[in-house]
């Protein structure tokens, strides 16, 4: 009987062991975030590899940002794993953690992120006194009187705003330039290093920027917890001088996930990098234009001692061949036999400067490519793209090498283009700066009557005038009058310049079929090109601190309808009217100004209306490159998940659009009425 009891207990123990092994080997479905910055993407790629190939998980990667991901995890349970949540800079994190629905596992950057005010090393070498805040304040001219602030909607902006007040940086002679996006902030550093130009502003590490460009964080004083805590509050009554603390970059999971999948939670609690390790990975990624997955492969090959300790025994057994992998030239494409057949294998296998091991090569380093000739396999043959051919022959460039070549070609001529375009476009910066200055300088009790009077003058429409006055008063009532006026100022300058250049171009097109055939494809390009693409070359050509950067983008986008409709309007003028003008002996100039333009005016005014609307639409996009106005508040609402801020700013933009549309249409109706009356 005792023997039977022992046998039963042994069976139960073996069953439990098998269940645990099965759970460890097949963890089911797991969702994990991929935040919109490089270090988080690398962490996610490394974690995904271990989850899939070491622990048997089916992984779903969810792109997100900190606040939305946290709220989604609490409300829906997805994502289950959140990589690199910066607790210091995400106020909602502490609130959600207190609910017990999320659980921090580890500082994924073990020694913490570093934030502060940085300057290039070449400036510090030339002026050692700039290492301290006092030295910086004493020499604003060395920085061209400009401090680079992080974008609206980032938590660091509030802290910096309070630090700027406490350090009296403005009083020392610094202008605070607020960037519209992290991309333009990074670009300003890259451009400064390219030209050995001055730069000071906020940045953080680990990042590829500080991995590539040597910079030093200036000493602004000691970290004082109470002072820093106050500085993070928009309503801080007594801002003080305190350095930033070391940031906590955390891997967080939902409480349910931690309870149901402890083996996976244990793995995630071990995946951690030092600041130096992550910066090195980011720098390697930048140098090789590598994807996050390729950086993960590079890390796995070169850091076995680090990641081997993260795994349990079962995962180690699965991945032991990966630990011994070396960079290989093994072809991993169905097109490999093609290069073998034509005798190019030795050429294909020569080392290249940018030879990067793929995940497939890492997992199956010795697998030969087999060509399955079945009908199902033939139907699944991938297109012979550059990337697919590169897998078969490393000498063939990938798409990234092609895009890098385009970038390098553009950069090679950038200085010459800038030399020509800078003086030509500088008046645009002056106009925008002047318009923004007056839009914010004039007091509301003068500005609103002036705008209402202007609308009445051009439209003579009582209803429209009252409507405009109501909208402007409403904007003031909700404290959005200043950003609304900034938006209107930019639209005013850019729309007028679009009309100034667009109408003559449209007239020239109407007089020449050849010119029309040449210009129409360019207009098609401008009209179909995604709005963000307008900004890419301009960021490299002009400083992100110059208003002409977004001004040119707005004009290029908004000028199309006025050109098209001016051309169309003149071409639609009745030929009999033109013949009558010829019979009266009118010359070309007289026909244009006294016959064609008056008759084409309805079409031209419709073009002006569309140009105004498109200018307004582009102003919102241009907030990414530091265009002020309501678009900045929309971005803030998106980044901080401040629903009310985003919706109210969006409503303001809609009201401005309606205001401009009704005013321009009323002006058109008034002009038509005056024209017909005079006739």
Give a description of the structure:
This protein is mainly alpha-helical and 679 residues long. It is 65% helix and 8% strand. The strands form four sheets. It has a three-stranded antiparallel beta sheet, with helices on both faces. It has a three-stranded antiparallel beta sheet with strand order 8-5-9. Strands 1-2 form a two-stranded parallel sheet. Helix 2 (38-53) links the parallel strand 1 and strand 2 (57-64). Helix 24 packs antiparallel against helix 32 (643-678) and helix 26 packs across helix 28 (548-571).
Rg from alpha-carbon coordinates: 31 Å
- The largest beta-sheet arranges its strands as 3-10-4
N- to C-terminal separation?
119 Å
The biggest beta sheet reads: 3 strands, antiparallel
Helix proportion:
55-70%
pLDDT < 50 stretches:
6-25, 327-331, 366-376
Beta percentage is 5-15%
| Number of strand segments | 10
Number of helices: 32
